[in-house]
Amino acid sequence: MPINHLSLPTGPCNFALMRDFYLATLQPLGFKIYKQVDGHFVGLQAPHAGPDFWLHCGGQDFEPVDPKLSADENLKTRGRSHVAFDVGSRKEVDEFYAAALKAGGVCNGAPGERSYAKGYYAAFVLDPLGNNIEAVHFNPLWLRAIKAAPSVVMLVLGIAVGHFGFGYFA
């Protein structure tokens, strides 16, 4: 079963910083605010989707990333979570990456094809609190076939019902 939503803690002092970072970073992917209570939580949603990404102030403040350190050094002392956003194209990966860096993210892997699987194109940034955020476009032939399967089944079923049930296509 897929995940319905995810919420990252920010700590009270970093809530506004994190909200602003994610609004800027996810804007190229079409994310908008679904619901917000200032200083407490914000829910974001992509077009034609439910609110699946949330930030909440949590009860503890976290130390922000140190821009003078490399991503690896920041991850050793701050890394908390990894979140990957599935995007529709390589262009969206590139736009996500550029927006994240402009919003203050730290590079943790420039856009490019990864060795994990043929066609896995991704970019990674650390958000202001050291969470590893990824945008990925991965659409191999086998995955496209799985996504298309319900449509093909419905088409075949529709033809069969039309042919046998109503005498169409006779």
UniProtKB/TrEMBL annotation:
SUPFAM superfamilies: Glyoxalase/Bleomycin resistance protein/Dihydroxybiphenyl dioxygenase. One of its GO terms (molecular function) is dioxygenase activity. Pfam families: Glyoxalase. The keyword Ribonucleoprotein does not apply. The chain crosses the membrane at residues 148-169. Residues 2-138 form the VOC domain. InterPro entries: Glyas_Bleomycin-R_OHBP_Dase, Glyas_Fos-R_dOase_dom, VOC_core. Keywords: Dioxygenase, Membrane, Oxidoreductase, Transmembrane, Transmembrane helix. This is Glyoxalase/Bleomycin resistance protein/Dihydroxybiphenyl dioxygenase. It comes from Apiosordaria backusii.
